[in-house]
Amino acid sequence: MKRLLMLALCGALFAASPARADPPVIVTFEAAGANAAAITGIRDSFRAAVGGGSVAGANGSFGGLRREINWDGVPDAFSDPNPLPGNFFNATSPRGAVFATPGTGFLVSANAGGAVPVLFGFSSDLQSFSPQKLFTPIASNITDVTFFLPGTTTAATTSAFGLVFVDVESAGSTHVDFFDAGNALIFSRDVLVAGNQGLSFLGATVSGDSVARVRITSGSGTIVSNGVLGSSSADFVVMDDFLYAEPAVMAAVPEPQTFALMALGLSMTLLARRRRTART
Fold it and tell me: By 3-state DSSP, what share of the chain in percent is helix, strand and coil, each rounded to 5?
């Protein structure tokens, strides 16, 4: 009887426990060089891996498979010297991405011909990948990207994320981290050095829709405002195009199967019977 009881209890616990998920399969795409041609091929390979066409639909959608943000359509009212709201690309232009930073906000660089200098006032250090606007956090080198069903407050996850960096000059100064819905780190990678004004691309696909947040560390320096750095000696880095798989609803945690409940009930019945027998 004791052996039968133990087997029943073990079976119940085994069946009630969720199956251990296999580690996600991660494929990395990276390149760096002096100009757009040096990274375009890898960017296109990442596009193909994620899926979607080459021409964007409404709000940066590529056939429901991929989203892209190239900053160039951001209006002057939300461009340098005016800050970009962190939810701009989930509210005004709904693409399911919301940005946060421990700094004071975000800047998108100005268009040529305006009163504000282009490229955040650093034309000798920066260039654009897709002309002509760039993106940076203000007074910080950290950008957190969280995902939602586009245009809603429903939390979501993605299976791929990639972006273009500008002016990565120091090894290890710039990196990207992926976190799952439980805030566990599932991917971390340093960005390749491209040198002054150079362009770097880093992207990764992850099996399953498991990426809930992406943390981007862009250089060791910061931009405070147009033409002003937090430290003149630090390596400041900015960003251009963001590309990511269409955000999807987070998968629900599976409930125990019927067999698990039956096994647990059997174990409790056997335990009660054993207690009654012991009292007689």
Answer: 20, 30, 50
Q: Which amino acid, 167?
A: D
Find the helix or strand (DSSP H, E) in which 101 lies.
Answer: none
Q: How do residues 153-193 score in pLDDT, each as one tens digit?
A: 999 999 999 999 999 999 999 999 999 999 999 999 999 99
- Record the pTM: 0.84
DSSP label at residue 103: S
On the CB side of 119, how many CA atoms lie within 13 Å of its CA?
Answer: 15
**How many CB atoms neighbour CB 160 within 10 A?**
25
Q: Does domain 26-249 have CATH number 3.40.50?
A: no
Among 246, 221, 238, residue whose Cα is nearest residue 129: 238
- Distances from the Cα of 242 to the Cαs of 103, 225, 272, in angstroms? 20, 22, 61
| Buried-state track 161-197, b at ≥16 Cβ within 10 A, e below 16 | bbbbbbbbbeeebbebebbbbeeeebbebebbbbeeb
Sign of CA dihedral 175, 88, 60, 208: positive
